Amino acid sequence: HWFFFDELLRLIIEQFAPIAEMKDILIEDNIEDKLQYFGDKNRLHQLFVILVDNALKYTSAKGRVNISCKKEGSLLRIVIFDTGVGIPESDLPFVFDRFYRSDKSRTREEGGTGLGLSIAKWIVEAHRGHITVESKLVEGTRFTIKLPLKERLN
Ligand code: ATP
After folding, report:
1. pLDDT tens digits for range 30-61
2. Would you say the CB of residue 54 lies under 6 angstroms from ligand 1?
3. pLDDT tens digits for 117-132?
4. How far is it, in rounded angstroms, from Cα 126 to Cα 41?
5. Residue 119 Cα to ligand 1 middle (Å)
6. Burial class (CB in 10 A: 0-12, 13-18, 19+), 27
7. Whose CA is nearest to atom 15 of ligand 1?
8. Is 61 exposed, middle or buried (0-12, 13-18, 19+ CB in 10 A)?
9. Distances from the Cα of 136 to the Cαs of 1, 73, 90, 91, 141, in angstroms?
10. Pocket lining: 101 vs ligand 1, CB cutoff 6 Å
11. Which is the closest atom of ligand 1 to the Cα of 84?
12. Is the C-beta atom of 66 inside 6 A of ligand 1?
């Protein structure tokens, strides 16, 4: 269905605001208005729950999570970055694999199954998009999603 992508992202930010406040993390956004998009809104909501939940989970107090979205030609470009613990370079190729969790000793106490990012990738690809990750230990992590836009004919 058609929906406004900016509204979905603002809803996510609203839903995570109490958690961010509790953890003393600033959520910043840079989201273009009136971005009409055709896709599965519920699954895309789940995608951003996974990514923003991780961003907040792996970032400590006084950190930042930034969510941006803009139209770039015939695609939407969404970037979610955090100033958190980062992912070791050697783990980066595997983070989208099922059940993969970086640094088990660090993450075990946080719970989780390592399924989140494999589901995220599946949702993006079901929309014919791409998701990539860049990260630097101690500096933070950046997920970039590109989703092709459909022409609205009416
Ligand atoms: P958990 O996140 O607790 O491991 P999960 O099921 O949410 O469980 P995924 O979302 O698939 O797992 O993430 C896989 C692994 O990638 C995580 O265990 C974590 O090591 C790493 N990771 C994911 N997002 C981030 C991030 N924003 N910053 C640092 N590491 C991350």
Report:
1. 999 999 999 999 999 999 999 999 999 999 99
2. yes
3. 999 999 999 999 999 9
4. 12
5. 12
6. buried
7. 101
8. exposed
9. 37, 29, 11, 11, 6
10. yes
11. 28
12. no
Biggest CA pair distance of the chain: 54
**Both tokens assigned to 38:** 């055709």
First to last CA, the chain: 14
Q: What is the pLDDT of residues 53-107, one digit of tens each?
A: 999 999 999 999 999 999 999 999 999 999 999 999 999 999 998 777 776 545 5
The Å distance, Cα 101 to ligand 1 centre, comes to 6
Based on C-alpha coordinates, what's the Rg of the chain? Answer: 15
Atom 17 in ligand 1: residue holding the nearest Cα: 101
Atom of ligand 1 nearest to the CA of 111: 3
Distance CA 118, CA 59 (A): 21
Which residue has the least CA distance to atom 10 on ligand 1?
116
